[in-house]
Write a structure and sequence with these properties.
It contains three helices and four strands. It is α+β, with helices and mostly antiparallel strands. It has a single domain, classed as 2-Layer Sandwich (Double Stranded RNA Binding Domain), CATH 3.30.160. It is elongated, with a radius of gyration of 22 Å. The relative contact order is 0.12.
Length: 123
């Protein structure tokens, strides 16, 4: 993955290497689940005792955005990844359904004929 395809910023705090690695892995998982050619931007900020996360994924297949906040960074991260995964799941269902219909429209005529129901006569 190129760094221009995924960026993670930290504002208001300096996470440990362990935390950076954890957040990087979580964002990398979201990026991997995203549509082909997507870019992911994540911002984690801390103000007083409140963490806030914002994740934005842009692609030609769709745009996905989520925000979560709370007192514990791990909980915030789980909420934000859950929100994005829910959006990606809806997109994948719709995309798969559209791909399946398009695929059926492109079937060769001989194969398409095999899907037709035989005509019945009621004489």
């Amino acid at each position: 993955m190129k760094s221009s395809e995924m960026t993670i910023q930290f504002n208001g705090f300096h996470p440990s290497t362990f935390t950076q690695d954890y957040l990087g892995e979580m964002m990398d998982e979201l990026y991997t689940e995203s549509p082909h050619g997507a870019s992911l931007q994540a911002v984690f900020s801390r103000q007083n005792h409140l963490f806030k996360a914002r994740v934005k994924i842009n692609s030609s297949g769709g745009h996905f955005f989520a925000v979560a906040s709370g007192r514990h960074l791990k909980d915030v991260t789980h909420r934000i990844t859950h929100q994005i995964r829910k959006q990606l799941g809806k997109w994948k269902k719709q995309h798969h359904r559209h791909q399946t219909i398009r695929h059926l429209e492109e079937l060769p005529e001989s194969l398409a004929e095999s899907f037709k129901m035989p005509e019945q006569s009621f004489a």
